[in-house]
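Now for one record:
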Amino acid sequence: MIVGILLAAGAGRRFGGDKLLAKVADGLCVAELSAARLAPTVDRLIAVVRPGNDALAERLAQAGAEVMPCPTAHEGMGASLAFGVRQAPDADGWLIALADMPLVATDDIRRVADALRAGAAIALPVAGDRRGHPVGFSRHFFDELTALGGDAGARALLQRHAAAITPVPVADAGTWLDLDTADDLAALRQQASAQSPKK
């Protein structure tokens, strides 16, 4: 069983508000589009949100996610990631996705998930010399993932276990555009305008 962990607990300080509720395409907000692309590739989808962010929680629940408010979300991405993984301790692996990257193609996400199902210890998409998202971890890394904290995410873990990484080649690094500024939102809308979430 591969569980998707959608990290949606950021404060959006650089954006100047809750960027995950910004509308992108087809009436969907950023987080909904991210969830829609991730959901078909995993056996269970958990969305980690900040406590009290009821509007976002409702949207993600409607998108089919199990919404889990993280009491330590203010500590950063590492804390949210660790919390999310702890909600599914019986998983065979976890696919860690960022809610502010709504353009990642479902086909690319599925290939990373399939690499985990085929026995990869760690799997991540690669385009040229760039690494992207989402990143998949097998159950072997449960203890290390749940020990994460702060805002560094799993970067140090990836460095420590570089030899265990299975690269999954994908064609377009442009889909890894994340949302930090109003200009990013304009670019996301432009790229998303001609497409709906791929099933």
User: Anything to note?
Assistant: The chain has a mean pLDDT of 87.
